[in-house]
Amino acid sequence: MMHLADTLNFSGRKVVAAWASVPFPxxxxxxxxxxxxxxxxxxxxxxxxxxxxxQGSCCFAQSVVLRGICRExxxxxxxxPLHACESTEQVLQCYLRARFPGxxxxxxxxxxxxxxxxxxxxxxxxxxxxxxxxxxxPPGFSSAAVESVPVLxxxxxxxxxxxxxxxxxxxxQKLNARRWASFFSAGVEQDDFQEALQELRxxxxxxxxxxxxxxxxxxxxxx
Length: 223
Hints:
Number of helices: 7
Strand order of the largest sheet: 2-1-7-3-4
Radius of gyration: 22 Å
Shape: elongated
Largest sheet: 5 strands, mixed
Number of strands: 7
Number of domains: 2
Helix content: 25-40%
């Protein structure tokens, strides 16, 4: 995980955010292009890291893995560029290029889904089939346990991390470290503490885009 995070970071960045979709919202009997095209204004995964909500689709680099979606054959009259791709991996890569233009993206596809047999908790909706795909309508009887699900997971070097890192910097900055004698008795010097604090602020600034940079300048002036 550490090596992958290093691969996705450059220009002084060191942190990545985690995203996932469990299960990946794929309707039964429909292709991956159909599932992705259904998300016109959003992405089909949710942020797991405590960074707040991201505004818009933007990242610097990302690694995305999709499991449990079988390879699809190209159709004769593609309804979109995604439908013209020859493999599931090409579909995912094409989607990432379109959704995150200019970002460094890697896509990996594994045919085997994630098993959800006991003791995996059965918190899934009744709208899921045993294989974790979406039904067209709820079953008319008690549905069987979900045995596996398609999953999409991603690690992103993203501007959303600026919020998390800058908030951490502001919280630590408010502390009066001199009041914590045990902290410095462990061997930490006041100068080292201040240096680490400034490094945290610099790291947060590495994830700024135009809007965040303007906001940080205003906060710096108020400090």
